[in-house]
Design brief:
By secondary structure, the protein is mainly α. It has five helices and no strands. The model is unreliable at 28-37 (pLDDT under 50).
């Protein structure tokens, strides 16, 4: 069973590395042919967005695995946070398609700074295989994502308020 789990993790890493290499290969070839090609910003933006969507799936699963091992009491909370985030992002994406939303994700500068800080702590703990630190940081990461959900919810509520006023 451990071998199967190890193979699964290795397979995920190979997939992630394949996704990471492709934009690098594209950018190198684009630099070589920069004079011959016109800017295809929409295509690049779409690839970038797809990459982040794929990475979110992997990161969510990674958090789930870490939670199962180091903070099993947080497993349900993480599933709830993830489900709420996905629902809110879907609402924001639909509003953007309808032209009601001028900006994409709503992540405050403070949230992003805290996010980078927590990610560095978690990465260090994982790199050092510090089980105690991982178990300590995971709940902080989940609370942080819950705060992001609150920011998303405020944005959705603001859209709802705007629609109500227009009617």
């Amino acid at each position: 069973m451990k071998k199967l789990h190890g193979l699964f993790i290795v397979a995920q890493l190979v997939i992630v590395l394949a996704f990471i290499q492709q934009p690098l290969i594209d950018s190198v070839s684009a630099e070589e042919n920069s004079e011959a090609q016109e800017c295809d910003c929409d295509k690049h933006h779409k690839k970038h967005k797809e990459f982040h969507q794929y990475m979110r799936i992997h990161k969510d699963f990674y958090y789930e695995l870490l939670t199962d091992k180091y903070a099993p009491e947080q497993a349900e909370q993480w599933k709830d946070i993830r489900s709420e985030r996905d629902l809110l992002l879907k609402k924001l994406t639909e509003a953007k398609k309808r032209g009601e939303l001028l900006h994409g994700d709503v992540k405050s500068k403070e949230w992003m700074e805290q996010h980078h800080f927590l990610q560095k702590q978690l990465t260090k703990a994982v790199k050092e295989r510090d089980e105690k630190k991982i178990a300590e940081v995971l709940p902080q990461v989940f609370a942080h994502y819950e705060a992001l959900n609150n920011e998303f919810q405020q944005r959705v509520n603001a859209l709802s308020d705007t629609q109500t006023e227009e009617e």
